[in-house]
Amino acid sequence: MAWWWVRMLLALCLASWLLPAGAQPVRLGVLAWLGEDRAAAQWAPLLDALASRLPAHSLHARYLDLDAMDTAVARGELDFVITNPGHYVALEARHGVSRIATQQIAAGHDSAHAVAATVIVPATDSTRRRLADLRDARLAMVTPQAFGGYQVIWGELKRAGVDPETGALTLRPTGYPMTRVVDALRAGQADAGVLRACLLEALQRTGQVRPGEFRVLSPQHHAGAPCQRSSPIYPGWAFAAAHDTPPALSRAVLLALLALPDTDDVTRWGVPADYHPVHDMLRELQIPPYDFLRQHRLENQVRRYWPWAAGVVALLLAWLAYTVRVEALVQRRTRELSAALTARDQLAERVHAHQREMDHLSRLSVLGELSGSLAHELNQPLATIGNYARSLKRRQANGQLDAAALIRAADEIASESERAAGVLAGIREFARKRARVREPHALATLTEQSLSLFRGMLAHAPAITWQCSAEAAEAQVLADPLQIQQVLLNLLKNACDAQQAAGREQMPIVVSLQRDGARLALAVRDHGNGLDLEAQGRLFEPFFTTKPDGLGLGLSICKTIAEAHGGELSADTPADGPGLCLWLRLPCLENPPA
Prior knowledge:
By secondary structure, the protein is of the alpha/beta class. 48% of the residues lie in helices and 16% in strands.
């Protein structure tokens, strides 16, 4: 062994001398299941052949046990790992390593059938023939984390009804190298031992084990298999890349592995095998990476949490006694609370009723202020109808009534009657008392209807300039249309009064609608005398008014309606001249129904 280390040092020195400058290092971790010295001797031919295929890289190998390799991968100290199937699955789940090749045991054999385990007993033990006979026995194995050295056999023992977790047998961990299992059997420290398949034959070839010294339990035969085994055959060892290994480096190493010479001393590698059988076995045993399944087993929960469960039961009993004591108090308090809630609901209903009455009275107030002009608006279409009727009589008397004049007169009479009926219908709909109903409506349409109604109710309606942006024209709000019209008519009436008081009746009232983010902003701007900042601050207070005959309730009710719709009503002074601008902002309906 000392000469071997000397040769290795000389080879490393020669490689470092011959290696071109700037060579990229390749950090390789190898699972040393037979100990570091044996592992170095076992994998030396592969590493030499691999180094010769990668002249632009320097190969650095580290021989590690399970825990040390897990730590090295976690710290990012390795580019590639060579490990057993079970450990690879755990590293894949924990650290994201990915296999690029799978070990083949011999030429012509697929990589999906390469790893198995063997259970041996001394040949002098005639009582044990099967794995089921190991009940109450002492089983030697290297470590519970070893895949081929224990976990494979654990799955078979569990299927045979001899689960080590239930105490059906006693485990005797020996640690690496695996030859310590044989030493434990010889020393009488164990009744049976777990070896990786083919290790028994290898020890017999080297003379470390005498032929016939040990016997295999539950031997499973497979055509062409070179060794005895006690378990099914699982995929071979994995040659895997770390999650941060460059893809180009992984590709170069894979090509080098597949191009290795087919000799007895160089490990063969094939395309990555399907590791689902390994996953199924680990999931059945509920060990990493499937150890989280253990947390949900009932027996584990009971064993883990029984002190807490006892405390919870005690608390439940105390709570039950307390509940019995206070049940009467709870019942009495419940009756009192129910009575209080009933009274509150009745009070809330009265408040809502009063609010509806106030809204209705506010609309009637607006109509009352505008009623002086209704006679003129209705008198005009009625006078037109009378004129056409008298004209028809005169033409009839003079014999000048032809079909064209009759049709034109009838059309005009119908048009004027519909106009008068429209004025009355709009006023009747606006003034009627009903429950609030909020539905999707286009605010632009409601505004245009309100402007039409306002013009129809005034004998000498002021000029109104209507401005609406394209994106605001189709935007909808969830609103009660009559309440919104009530607000708009109030704002228009106030604007008209303000311009009359300032002697600027000829100036137009500017009404504009635009999109303001997630809201629609409707502005009513007059050209009156405006208000100072103090008056603007009190503009929406109940009973505050600047009109000699006003009540001060209109804008207060309008503000309440705006806030009930999730919006706001505000006022500011225009920057382009005298007057006042009132803003009604309402949230847009983002997904209006079709």
